[in-house]
Write a structure and sequence with these properties.
Distance between the termini: 45 Å
Radius of gyration: 18 Å
Strand order of the largest sheet: 1-2
Number of helices: 11
Order of helices and strands: HHHHHHHHEEHHHEE
Strand content: under 5%
Helix content: 55-70%
Length: about 220
């Protein structure tokens, strides 16, 4: 395997192919410095610099999530500095989703942006934090309630994924995403979450047994 293949995938903005390729060769990436170091340099030169540009290009938003998931899922090892930049970028992309922003901020509490989020007290008259206060009526959770269950966390992740993406999202896409970000992933729980969110009229989809079925947020 050569670094040139990664270069082609990045230049052609093939995010899903990139993460699939990283997963296929993750052991070689971890053990071969002649591959991992040039790959980190390539990511910085082709994607990292774009993070400083405002507003972020739509395709860079896709790369932010792709790299975050690849690193978090131990598919690709970014440098600590790179991962911090990607995490802060995830916060900017997730603006309006308080739960997600706080989760990202906890990874780098000394970063100025993360510290500001963690130090900010959210005051709501009914003591409730809306996840997507700007546009969507997504389920809410009390501020000082007990820790979220695995099911609640998965539901939040599903809704967050759907809210961030403008492109086609299928049951299969969501399934792969949940596997990457959750150490407690269970297939039956994933499908239970989908059904419950549909019953609550938060999402809509057709045949749940067809992995290519599209999933949509209900506005």
């Amino acid at each position: 395997m050569e670094i040139n293949q990664f270069y082609i995938l990045i230049k052609e903005n093939r995010c899903e192919d990139f993460i699939t390729y990283c997963e296929k060769y993750k052991e070689e990436i971890k053990t071969n410095p002649y591959l991992s170091q040039p790959l980190n340099t390539l990511i910085y030169e082709e994607i990292g610099r774009e993070l400083e540009i405002t507003p972020l290009k739509p395709i860079i938003k896709d790369w932010i999530e792709t790299l975050y998931l690849a690193h978090s899922g131990n598919i690709l090892k970014l440098s600590n500095e790179q991962f911090e930049k990607i995490t802060v970028a995830q916060i900017k992309v997730s603006e309006g989703n308080i739960e997600a922003c706080r989760s990202y901020a906890k990874l780098f509490p000394d970063n100025p942006i993360c510290k500001e989020i963690l130090d900010t007290e959210i005051e709501e008259s009914n003591n409730i934090i809306p996840l997507f206060p700007k546009n969507k009526e997504i389920p809410v959770f009390e501020k000082d309630s007990k820790p979220l269950t695995i099911k609640e966390k998965m539901k939040i992740s599903i809704l967050n994924k759907l809210n961030q993406k403008s492109k086609r999202i299928t049951i299969s896409n969501l399934y792969d995403n949940m596997k990457l970000i959750s150490n407690d992933f269970k297939e039956d729980l994933y499908y239970t979450c989908l059904r419950e969110l549909r019953n609550d009229r938060k999402i809509s989809f057709g045949n749940i047994n067809n992995i290519d079925t599209e999933v949509h947020l209900i506005s």
